[in-house]
């Protein structure tokens, strides 16, 4: 195989692949069915034409047979009348008609054979087409069901992917919330332990805080002594 032939084969293969991708088998089946029906119609027309031809020959044969009988009667009358010359002419014409009848009989038999073959072909083709039609509808129904299932599955898959993304986002939000709560709790513990300065408590250091505690305690003691004196204790 030459380079051109290989290239041509590759191009055809790619074209067939592309066409196969976009081809709807239901349309292909319907098209095939229509072509078979057209073929059946052609066969039926052929049967009708052959039948018409046979009928035409049969009518022609019938006329010749009637003519043979008429010529035979004429020959008899001529003999009775002593006109052998007329009898001879009638018999000659009778013989010619009989020869034509023999030929027509053979032709009619041949056409009858053709007719029988065409009728048998029509019946076989009709049965095959009906079987194909039934198979076609079954395949189309199966394809439509499979197509619908694919679409539903794709939709469900899309929803599943979206829900998966949502679930991951929710989980991330929960994780961040827990981390933030843990961080806040840790900061509170550090503030209470004095390890971490409470920015809301001003600029006091640990000495200032101790002095504040002593001052607060002194104020409480002073207030307690004053209260005791007031009550005579």
Automatic annotation (TrEMBL):
- Keywords noted in UniProt: Coiled coil
* UniProt keyword Ribonucleoprotein present: no
Q: Known Pfam families for this protein? A: PspA_IM30
Question: What domain of life does the UniProt record list for this protein's source?
Answer: Archaea
Q: Which residues form a coiled coil?
A: 47-81, 129-190
Instruction: Name the PANTHER family on file.
Output: MEMBRANE-ASSOCIATED PROTEIN VIPP1, CHLOROPLASTIC, PHAGE SHOCK PROTEIN A
Family, according to the entry, reads as follows:
Belongs to the PspA/Vipp/IM30 family.
Spell out the protein name for this chain.
Phage shock protein A
What is the protein's species of origin?
Answer: Candidatus Methanoperedens nitratireducens
């Amino acid at each position: 195989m030459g380079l051109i032939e290989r290239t041509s084969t590759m191009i055809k293969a790619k074209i067939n692949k592309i066409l196969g991708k976009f081809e709807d088998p239901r349309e292909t089946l319907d098209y095939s069915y229509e072509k078979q029906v057209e073929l059946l119609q052609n066969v039926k027309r052929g049967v009708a034409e052959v039948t018409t031809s046979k009928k035409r020959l049969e009518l022609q044969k019938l006329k010749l047979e009637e003519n043979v009988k008429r010529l035979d009667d004429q020959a008899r009358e001529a003999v009775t009348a002593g006109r052998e010359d007329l009898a001879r002419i009638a018999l000659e014409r009778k013989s010619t008609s009989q020869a034509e009848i023999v030929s027509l009989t053979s032709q009619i038999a041949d056409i009858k054979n053709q007719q029988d073959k065409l009728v048998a072909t029509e019946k076989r083709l009709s049965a095959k087409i009906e079987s194909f039609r039934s198979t076609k509808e079954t395949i189309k129904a199966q394809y439509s069901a499979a197509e619908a299932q694919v679409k539903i599955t794709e939709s469900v898959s899309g929803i599943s992917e979206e829900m998966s993304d949502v679930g991951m986002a929710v989980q991330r939000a929960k994780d961040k919330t827990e981390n933030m709560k843990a961080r806040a709790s840790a900061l509170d513990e550090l503030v209470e332990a004095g390890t971490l300065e409470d920015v809301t408590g001003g600029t006091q250091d640990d000495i200032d805080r101790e002095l504040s505690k002593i001052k607060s305690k002194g104020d409480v003691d002073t207030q307690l002594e004053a209260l005791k004196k007031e009550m005579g204790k």
